[in-house]
Amino acid sequence: MNIYDIADKAGVSIATVSRVINNDKKVSKSTRNRVQKIIEDNNFIKKSDYSRHTNNTIVYMCSGTGSGDMADKITYLSDALYKSGYKTAIACCNQDETAKKNMLERYLSENFSGIIIDGHDFLTYSIEENINLLKEITIPSVIINGYFDNVDNVNLCYVNNNISSFIENIAKEYIRKEKKKILFLFERMSFGVKNILTGLHNAYDFAGMDADPDFTQLCRDMSYVEKYINTLIDKEKIPDVVLCKSEKLAAYASIILQKKNYKIPEDIEILCVGDSEICSLVKPQLTSVDIKSKEICDTVINVLIGKINKKTVPVISIINVELLKRESTL
């Protein structure tokens, strides 16, 4: 018998069984007694050797490992965890809510020590979806770049960067200098994109302006970027600034705009969120926002291991990002 059988016999979710096993006080007495009786009758604990925090493995959950930033995070986390005596399991799935919920339930049913969820990519634009997912967590966990003050779960801690307020301040400065047409390009909707959009919209609200919907666009690759820039040119809507969610998109935008005889940065400034060697390889070199992946990962490890060892750790830790000035901005 496994945890799925226990849940089925008790008429509860896998997460509820996990809560009972881990002595979570949120389970009602009647439900706890019912689940515990089934566990004891079937000798489940002894048979499965289910003991909390015994295998020294941390699960890193994300929705893809293709980006340079994600690869860096995996490297940092794996190295730091190894030095601290932990192994790392990488768990990837698409952004489908059911797929993520099933994957989370699966790992909660195992005897892992803790979970790290990359909020930037794993969490979605839907607050309700995120809350439904995070409230099920029953072991020490840290969310990277995602925070919900209405999720009442003592197992969760958060390590965030300040990208939303940082972008807000940059946008305010551009608007103050009469560079009000800020084009934002991103590869897919995510919680990280939501944070950047929040910063942009706050800046426009502060200036008493409405953000132009034509200046926010999903572009999956270079052909999408070129097509959309052509659309804006046809509408005679030339951006003052192009802000990109990735270095690749910023490089695409720079190449395409220069082919159309726009000077970077004299005519149009370009900057991106995230920093990699791409920023220095293109001409002009790209100004970027360093989102401090290593600092974030180091903090995540310290918080999570502290949480596992039942030490007092901050619920929220904030890491400040940094603007790396290069040739693509004035």
TrEMBL record:
Keyword match S-adenosyl-L-methionine: no
Domain HTH lacI-type: 1-45
GO terms, molecular function: DNA-binding transcription factor activity; transcription cis-regulatory region binding
Protein name: Transcriptional regulator, LacI family
Pfam families: LacI, Peripla_BP_3
Gene3D superfamilies from the UniProt entry: 3.40.50.2300, lambda repressor-like DNA-binding domains (1.10.260.40)
Assigned keywords, A-Z: DNA-binding, Repressor, Transcription, Transcription regulation
Species assigned in the record: Eshraghiella crossota DSM 2876
Keyword set includes Transmembrane: no
